[in-house]
Design a protein that fits this description.
The complex is a heterodimer of chains A (264) and B (108). In chain A, helix 2 crosses helix 6, helix 9 (174-194) packs antiparallel against helix 10 (199-218) and helix 10 (199-218) packs antiparallel against helix 11. Chain A has helices spanning 14-37, 41-66, 68-73, 77-80, 82-89, 96-113, 122-125, 128-143, 174-194, 199-218, 234-263, and strands at 4-7, 10-13, 228-229, 232-233. In chain A, the strands form 2 sheets. Chain A has a two-stranded antiparallel ribbon with strand order 1-2. In chain A, strands 3-4 form a two-stranded antiparallel sheet. Chain A is globular and about 65 Å long. By secondary structure, chain A is mostly helical. Chain B contains 4 helices and no strands. Classes of the chains: A mainly alpha (264), B mainly alpha (108). Chain A binds chain B through residues 10, 12-13, 15-17, 19-20, 23, 42, 45-46, 49-50, 52-53, 56, 59, 62-63, 66-67, 70, 73-74, 77, 83-84, 86-96, 99, 114, 133, 136-137, 139-140, 143, 145-146, 163-164, 223, 225-227, 234, and chain B through 41, 44, 47-48, 51-52, 54-55, 58, 61-62, 82, 85-103, 106-108.
Chain lengths: 264, 108
């Protein structure tokens, strides 16, 4: 694929460019939606900034956690070649689930700080997560990272210019499958918001939808350097926890509605 | 002795404006994030400083400070952040793929 494009005298990674495109669409959606969501523009954007900061920190922290054995093995690099150490272990590598939970924590901190309700921010902020994520996955496809298993099929892709994927074998473009799935999830969330579905339910739909999707897609991924706990990858373990949280939200909402109906 | 009277030892009234400190910090971080953008491998710090600058600018506005310093801090932090994001090689969802490729040369 095309890992970089040359702009302004710099090699711009396609991943960054795609993520930035997703960011623009996300900001556009907030601008379209914030009035109907009942939040002020300032609160919507400021919470988004907190969420973005949380996403960055969370994605990096989880990445460090998954790479901990390599980091410990290479600690001596800190003395011999600190620049390389930081280049390898700090500047590269982010994990989506860390970003998701970091973003939720960031928004929660904002809501708590200014004494606002956390779930009120789901509308309009929640669909921005899959919007940015879906564009980011297209970026992964361009970079040739997060690649799928080898396939002997017409839809197999040779990542001939990738610095990461094997270049001599056709691979399943699992990045595009995930991107398509996450775009659908974003569309579903947007429809739910325009139908004024309860905000806890919106979060539950996202957690269940993405948790299941990611759990399944992990079986088709071939980049084995992601950390495993037993037979499951770390992302699959987090997917299971994510689905449990989604179900708990659904059950909680169901009980809440049930009690309200009994009172009436 | 009147406990409320500390005999003129009160700090001078500096006419503190709520949020002004955060706005000034935001401006400084915005400038720093732009500087880091021009140095190699420091784009990561551009993102960190840009984020912190945006958060401080938002805090300043929420506290009621809407002066030009806050606006400048917000804009510079945003520019630093965008520049950092564009230059910085990052890949959400693929933990350490770049790292591992390099690390394998150095790990046993």
């Amino acid at each position: 694929m095309f890992p970089y494009i040359h702009l302004f005298g710099k090699n711009i990674p396609m991943y960054s460019l795609m993520a930035f495109t997703g960011l623009l669409f996300a900001v556009g959606y907030i601008l379209l939606r914030y009035k109907k969501s009942g939040l002020s523009r300032d609160d919507s954007f400021f919470a988004f900034i907190y969420g973005a900061a949380g996403a960055l920190a969370g994605a990096k922290l989880l990445s460090i956690f998954t790479m901990l054995p390599q980091i410990i093995r290479n600690l001596d690099l800190l003395q011999t070649d600190p620049e390389l150490f930081f280049q390898v272990f700090l500047y590269a590598g982010f994990v989506f689930y860390g970003g998701l939970y970091g973003a939720l924590l960031g928004v929660w901190i904002y809501a708590r700080h200014w004494k606002l309700a956390f779930f009120d921010f789901m509308d309009p902020l929640l669909p921005t997560v899959p919007i940015i994520h879906a564009w980011g996955r297209i970026g992964c496809f361009f970079m040739g990272c997060c690649y799928g298993i080898p396939v002997d099929a017409p839809w197999g892709v040779y990542f001939a210019r990738s610095e990461i994927a094997p270049t001599d074998v056709a691979l399943l473009p699992v990045q595009l499958y995930e991107s398509a799935g996450v775009f659908v999830l974003a569309a579903v969330l947007i429809v739910l918001q325009y139908r004024h579905i309860q905000k806890r339910m919106q979060l539950a739909v996202y957690l269940l939808g993405y948790g299941v999707m990611r759990f399944v897609l992990e079986f088709f991924r071939y980049d084995a350097y992601r950390g495993f706990i037993g037979l499951l990858s770390i992302s699959q373990v987090i997917s299971v926890l994510t689905v449990i949280w989604g179900m708990a939200l659904l059950i909680g909402q169901g009980l809440h509605v049930g009690r309200a109906e009994i009172r009436e | 002795m009147d406990p409320n009277n500390n005999y003129g030892n009160d700090p001078p009234n500096r006419n503190r404006v709520p949020g002004k400190g955060a706005a000034i910090a935001s401006l400084i971080l915005g400038i720093v994030s732009l500087v880091f953008w021009f140095l190699s491998y420091s784009a990561f710090l551009s993102i960190v400083c840009g984020m912190a600058g945006l958060i401080l600018a938002s805090i300043a506005k929420k506290k009621g400070f809407t002066g030009d310093i806050r606006l400048a801090g917000f804009v510079l932090s945003l520019l630093g952040l965008v520049g950092g994001v564009l230059v910085f090689i990052a890949c959400i969802g693929c933990a350490g793929v770049f790292s591992f490729a390099l690390a394998t040369f150095y790990a046993y």
